[in-house]
Amino acid sequence: MTNNRHNTYANNAILTASQEELTLMLYNGAIKFCNKAIYSIEQDDLEGAHGFNIRVQDIIMEFQITLNMDYEVSEGLALLYDYIMRRLIEANIKKDNEILEEVCGHLREIRDTWKQAMVLAKQKKIS
């Protein structure tokens, strides 16, 4: 019953979120799955690690596909997403937590920058 309520809440959050909030949710999801891949490797659950790594790759691929290249910053993001994707593939092949830690660091940095941009955009709308 509790799991069902959580799923309903999560679905409602997604359905009512703005584009910016959805992007933030995706970054948070990528970080969560990256951490789960790291934990899975530590627990010698290589199949689980593979699955979580693929979920991170799927999110990064979504970012790559939907990246709006009309903005100057997009070129740099495209290169960063490409790098992250290559590192994820390498980490998945080698089951290398050091690479996954690096990827998580990049994702946290991008996520935090995105959050700051959201705050600045909201402040601009208010003033």
What are its keywords?
single chain; 127 residues; mainly alpha; Four Helix Bundle (Hemerythrin (Met), subunit A); 5 helices; 89% helix
Protein architecture, described:
By secondary structure, this protein is an all-alpha fold. It has a single domain (18-126), classed as Up-down Bundle (Four Helix Bundle (Hemerythrin (Met), subunit A)), CATH 1.20.120. The protein is built from five helices and no strands. The termini are far apart.
Rounded mean pLDDT score: 92
Distance between the termini: 44 Å
Shape: globular
Largest sheet: none
Structural classification:
mainly alpha
Task: Tell me what portion of residues adopts beta-strand conformation.
Answer: under 5%
Report the total helices. 5
Please bin the fraction of helical residues.
Answer: over 70%
Contiguous runs where pLDDT drops below 50 for at least 5 residues: none
Number of structural units classed as domains: 1
According to DSSP, the number of beta strands is 0
CATH class: Mainly Alpha
CATH architecture: Up-down Bundle
CATH topology grouping: Four Helix Bundle (Hemerythrin (Met), subunit A)
Order of helices and strands: HHHHH
| Computed Rg | 16 Å
CATH superfamily: Flagellar protein FliS
